[in-house]
Write a structure and sequence with these properties.
By secondary structure, this protein is an alpha/beta fold. 50% of the residues lie in helices and 18% in strands. Helix 9 links the parallel strand 9 and strand 10. The termini are far apart. The structure holds beta-D-glucopyranose. Beta-D-glucopyranose binds next to loops.
């Protein structure tokens, strides 16, 4: 072999080794991320729980996680936060399956649909406790539910819209999912609240797949296809944000009423600017915090109410925390 060939050969071998090292490292990271590890560290904890949300990097779910981690720290619990990076039912179900297989002490998750989640939850409950959070699978054998009363929260949104528009609006609804229990209930509650109002018409209902980009795309399609729409109702945390972006660009924001869900910083910013007029506030931190405490009670044989509804209320510009009003002036 000439010196040059040897050098090329050497570089080739080096590249091969480096790429092997990367594959092993990242392969390990994915597995250990997806599957709650039976960590050595677990030995110093009393319990090991997994919180499985529908979307890991969603700001709303990060608040649930924060609450759960706080309770976990206080009670000596190892809490893992695992699930799909972006909403994906199959991955969500797979994470629950894997958590069950790795013999954790309890699983906290949403009950997104009766068809897919109820049979799985029932199988898990034969082995370990399951608490549903944020979204209930009320027909399953889950041991308890903590979260918003989703029907009532939709009803509240409907009543707020009637009040704010004097009962005159052509409404487009953008919902996170046509199939998820909580999204259906939020739409149903809203429809029931407005059904006896002759001046309120629901023109169309579209789905955002809980993605802000998709919500904006749907809002754009609506402003193009239905010029008479002058009100929007977004039923999951990122919907109203996506709608607001489109309304600011393509419509006169003061001619369009927007009501959404949740009080993420961007939502509050749009409220302070007047683009989003109202939002239904949920208590994600408290849901996470209480779910962990309830799971401990269940394992320790204490009585736990089967349903705990956390608070929901309407927030408008005048209800903004002072800090956000002050921020609003700077935007
Ligand atoms: C819902 C969550 C959902 C999130 C999506 C919230 O309003 O309660 O279930 O994952 O919106 O952004």
């Amino acid at each position: 072999m000439s010196g040059l060939t040897k050098a090329a050969y050497g570089v080739g071998v080096l590249c091969f080794l480096v790429s092997c090292a990367f594959s092993v490292f990242y392969g390990y990271k994915v597995v250990s991320h997806d599957l709650p590890a039976e960590d050595k560290a677990a030995e110093k904890y009393h319990y090991h729980f997994v919180l499985v949300p529908e979307e890991l990097d969603n700001d709303y779910w990060r608040l649930v996680e924060e609450g759960a981690q706080k309770a976990a720290e206080e009670h000596g619990v190892l809490l893992e936060y695992a699930g799909p990076k972006q909403a994906n039912i199959d991955e969500h179900l797979k994470t629950i399956e894997m958590s069950m297989a790795s013999k954790v002490d309890g699983i906290i998750t949403q009950g997104l649909s009766d068809e897919q989640f109820t049979p799985l939850i029932n199988r898990v409950v034969e082995k370990l406790p399951v608490i549903t959070i944020d979204t209930d699978a009320a027909n399953s054998n889950r041991m308890a539910y903590i979260g918003t009363d989703n029907y009532y929260s939709g009803f509240l949104a409907g009543k707020a819209l009637i009040e704010d528009t004097n009962g005159q609006a052509n409404v487009a609804i953008i919902t996170g999912s046509f199939y998820a229990n909580h999204q259906q209930q939020r739409v149903q509650g809203f429809q029931d609240a407005v059904k006896s109002e002759e001046g309120i018409k629901i023109i169309t209902v579209e789905e955002s797949e809980i993605s802000r980009v998709r919500a904006a795309e749907k809002a754009y399609q609506i402003v193009t296809d239905y010029p008479k729409v002058n009100a929007f109702y977004g039923t999951s945390a990122l919907d109203a944000i996506g709608i607001a972006q489109v309304v600011e660009k393509f419509r006169e924001p003061d001619q369009v009423y927007i009501i959404g869900f949740d009080s993420l910083p961007e939502t509050l910013k749009y409220i302070s600017e007047g683009t989003i007029k109202a939002t239904v506030v949920q208590e994600p931190f408290e849901m996470g915090y209480k779910a962990v405490a309830m799971m401990i009670d269940l394992i320790e044989g204490k009585k736990v109410p089967p349903v705990i509804h956390t608070d929901t209320r309407i927030m408008r510009e005048e209800d903004l925390p002072d800090i956000h009003r002050a921020m609003g002036e700077e935007y």
